[in-house]
Each structure stands twice: as structure tokens, then as C-alpha cells.
Amino acid sequence: MSALRHSRRVWKCRVENDEEPLNLTGTQIKTTIIESAVCVPTTAPTRGQPVTSNHAPRTLAYLTCISATLASASVFAQTAPRTDFDLLCNGIGERLESHESYGSEWDSKKHKFVDSDRTSLDTTQIQATVQVEIHDGQGRVRLPKRLLPALASGGEDGWWPLRDLQIGPDRIQASYRLNGLNKPKLDIDRRTGHIRIQGVETFEGECSAVEPGAKRF
């Protein structure tokens, strides 16, 4: 007969790192979560229920099982991969912009300088902030207007859904569609926070986790 069936018997349980022992009945032991405890009986059993030498080991085995279960749950909670992110990324973006220049140039046919204007495409750097949100396996990215092409579709209030989202232990990778010819790829290093977006427009920066709705002051 298991010692814990003696619900009225009082057991003295010493818990690891606790100086004072606990006096518990069998019923209390079965309904109380105790880690790393050793229990021995302090009172005689009720009539008709003899004491055996293996009562305390049986109690210890029961408590050890509880402790092992709690330890496993704790390890699982610590190692469970994170899948929800709210990131604010500051950095530098690049895009092609047209520039017009005015001046004069030598006309070999007319043998004189004539007025001229030219349009050229040059790379322009832009200080920008990009937002990334990932929840329940779905993600979206928000880009500043200056990093959007003239023809962009599929977004909502400045947000574009992430496609082919992959969340690994070290990297977050995805893509999004701005138009038929512009489908940038997004790559975030989870160790350093570095983000890189490669497309017709590009962006590189550093991401920090933020709490939605939180205030700094």
C-alpha cells in the first residue's frame, strides 16, 4: 500500500534550499507541487495501515516525478522558438531618381554653343525607417514613401504582406511584391539585428524589437 494513501499521516518534507521543513499530510503532498523534496513520516499510521520501510522512497519517487515534469516544462519554455516580432529598423535606403540638368554645349554643325537640357538617372541615398511585423506565421513590412516605386500595388496603408516567410534560429527571410517587376527580398540577422532589402530599391539598417503601443515617456 502506498504511503500517500494515508491521507491523515503527517509527513515532514524538506525542500532543497529551504531551511524550514514542511509538515504535510498525504493528501496535501499529492496536491502540492514540490521540487527536490525528501519526505519522511512523523506520525504513526492509522489503525489497520502498518508502516513499511519503503513508504518514504515511494513518496520521494512521486515527488521526483513531479520535479522532473516541472524541469521539462521549464526547459521547453526557455527553448521554444520565438515566432512573433515587432521590429523598428533605422538605416539608409537607395533608389534611382531622375535629375534634369541645364547648360550649354558646343554644336559642331552650327559651330557655336547652344542651350541644352538633359535628364539622367542617379542613385540617391535616403535616411529611412522600415517596420516589420510578424505574428502567427504571417508578416508585413512598411516602407517610407521615398523607397516606393512610382507604380506600386498590393499594399494597404503603406504595408505590404510578406511572402515565403521563413523564421529560423538565426535569420528571418521573406519577399514582398511591389509590382510585377519589383519583388524585393528581405533578410534579417536575428543575432545582430542587421536588415538588408534587395530590389530595385535597396535598404540596409539595424532593427530593434519594440512593444506595440508602448511609450518611451
Radius of gyration, whole Å: 34 Å
Query: Uncertain regions: pLDDT < 50 for 5+ in a row?
Result: 1-5, 48-63
CATH hierarchy, class of the largest domain = Mainly Beta
Task: Output the structural class.
Answer: mainly beta
Distance between the termini: 63 Å
Description of the structure:
With 217 residues, the chain is mainly beta. It folds into 2 domains: 76 residues, no CATH class; 125 residues, Porin. It has 2 helices and 12 strands. Strands 7-6-5-4-12-11-10-9-8 form a 9-stranded antiparallel sheet, with no helix packed on it. Strands 2-1-3 form a 3-stranded antiparallel sheet. The longest helix has 25 residues. The protein starts with 9 loop residues before the first strand and ends in an 8-residue tail after the last strand.
Q: Summary?
A:
14% of the residues lie in helices and 45% in strands. With 217 residues, the protein is mainly β.
Topology of helices and strands:
Elements: E1 10-15, E2 22-25, H1 26-31, E3 37-41, H2 55-79, E4 85-107, E5 112-135, E6 138-142, E7 159-161, E8 163-167, E9 171-175, E10 185-189, E11 194-198, E12 202-209
Antiparallel strand pairs: 1-2, 1-3, 4-5, 4-12, 5-6, 6-7, 8-9, 9-10, 10-11, 11-12
Features:
single chain; 217 residues; mainly beta; Porin; 2 domains; nine-stranded antiparallel sheet; 14% helix; disordered N terminus
